[in-house]
Amino acid sequence: MKPRPFDYVRPDTVEEALALLAEYGDDARVLAGGQSLIPMLNLRLIEASVLIDISRIAALDGIRDLGNTIEIGAAVTQNALMAWPQLAQKLPLLAAALPLVGHFQTRNKGTVCGSIAHADPSSELPLALAVLEGQVVLRSQKRGEHVVAAAAFQRDMLTTARASDELIVAVRFPVIEGKGTAFNEVARRHGDFAIIAVAAVADWRGATQVGVGGIAGRPLVRRIFNDSAGAVAAWADELEGYEDLHATAAMRRDLFKNLAPDVIAEAVRCAA
Amino acid sequence: MRRVNKNERTRVALTLNNRKLAAEAEPRMLLSDFLRHALGATGTHVGCEHGVCGCCTVLIDGAATRSCLTLAVQAEGSDVRTVESLAAADGKLNALQQAFRNNHALQCGFCTPGILMSFTDFLGRNPHPTEEEIREVLSGHLCRCTGYAGIVAAIKEAAGGP
């Protein structure tokens, strides 16, 4: 299908983009890679009166090493981050998660920040951000810049803490040293939305930060010590899960119970 | 700042297969439709229009991209390459196309233009991929006729593999 008509604006600077967001607010949608937004417009699941295309703002197209964190600008594509030479060393969890994000062809355009802004409950990058306890950098014309923790950013399915006049200018992933990480998911086809995705960060004492996507409206994170299979089973039983075309809620809980102990074991192995 | 109002038609100029071309488009016009209807380049096919089937894949500034998930106006000023750019002027197939013919990697051919463009990009970055890597990139395409064995064999042949 084709999208309904909308105005298109392509600002050259962040300031211009913020002025447009202040002017249009909820009537506007920010377009970066468009790999989630344009399908939704094509299918007419959403409407926008104005698209603000930030993909050519040079100031947003950078990966910056801030020491303890890596800051990824809003115009950086998923494949650009995958090709970053220090990815495996500084952000091993993302090195494992990125190949599972969409397809090679959509990663060429889709952005890291866009995936987090879209906040699909089964998508990989919001899960990675949640498990690593990363941050989202928001900026508006009126209130300037403020930083929101991942846990406070994604509130529910496709719902975030971003105000309508704010732009996500970057996200920050903490660099973790001396810990093991692992990421895996179950999907019908490589690159499809995950039915269940699990991410784990383990330290050398065996404590593991575990996150699960695809079972609630947002990624859930919990710290697990020892007996991971038992802890995961107990956690899965607490969760309602949800049912859609791809899986029943019970199947989601089962997949979580089966997948998570393997992901945790891999993270623990890497930490050792 | 570039600005186009809804229902306004604007001139979009880009380079298509080494030719500088321009035509009019509304903001909501998809690049896939712009290529086919405004520029007459019908080699690029349109399947699902939500980024799943991969038929409409073209190269934008060298990167394999879904043209149905790109607005024409977003590709303004870009270098766009489609399946029409692959064969020589005299019609001689390039190595990747010839490998598809040799391995019966297409039947109806609807999905083929997109697959050829994806692997034009991918083999440029990774000239000797493993079968697993080939299958991962191929997972971004749907073929309903031949299945994927012939396609994988063709790509391996084009990459100089066994």
Shape descriptor of chain A reads: globular
Considering the protein shown, what is the CATH homologous superfamily of the largest domain in chain B? Beta-grasp domain
Helix content of chain B: 25-40%
**CATH architecture designation of the largest domain in chain B:** Roll
Q: Can you name the CATH architecture of the largest domain in chain A? A: 2-Layer Sandwich
Q: What is the CATH first-level class name of the largest domain in chain A?
A: Alpha Beta
Biggest chain pair contact, residues each?
A-B, 37 and 36 residues
| Terminal-residue CA separation of chain B | 52 Å
Uncertain segments of chain A are none
* Strand residue percentage of chain A: 25-35%
SS class of chain B? alpha+beta
Q: What profile does the largest beta sheet of chain B have?
A: 5 strands, mixed
Class by alpha and beta content of chain A: alpha+beta
Which regions of chain B contain 5 or more consecutive residues with pLDDT less than 50?
A: none
A few lines on this structure:
Chain A has 272 residues and is α+β, with helices and mostly antiparallel strands. Chain A contains eleven helices and 14 strands. In chain B, strands 3-2-6-4-5 form a five-stranded mixed β-sheet, sandwiched between helices.
How would you describe this protein?
The complex is a heterodimer of chains A (272) and B (162). Chain A is of the alpha+beta class. Chain A folds into three domains: 7-53, Uridine Diphospho-n-acetylenolpyruvylglucosamine Reductase, domain 2 (2-Layer Sandwich), CATH 3.30.43; 58-174, Uridine Diphospho-n-acetylenolpyruvylglucosamine Reductase, domain 3 (2-Layer Sandwich); 195-271, 2-Layer Sandwich (Enolase-like, domain 1), CATH 3.30.390. Chain A contains eleven helices and 14 strands. Chain A is globular. The model of chain A has no long low-confidence stretch (mean pLDDT 95). In chain B, helix 2 (95-102) runs antiparallel to helix 5. In chain B, strands 3-2-6-4-5 form a five-stranded mixed beta sheet, with helices on both faces. Chain B has two domains: 10-82, Beta-grasp domain (Ubiquitin-like (UB roll)); 95-158, DNA polymerase, domain 1 (Orthogonal Bundle), CATH 1.10.150. Helix content of chain B is 30%, strand content 17%. Chain B is an alpha+beta fold and 162 residues long. In chain B, strand 2 (10-16) and strand 3 form a beta hairpin. Chain A binds chain B through residues 1-12, 16, 31, 34-35, 38-39, 41-43, 49, 51, 53, 55, 79, 99, 102-106, 108-109, 189-191, and chain B through 1-7, 26-28, 30, 33, 49-51, 54, 57, 60, 63-66, 68-71, 73-74, 118, 121-122, 135-137, 139-140.
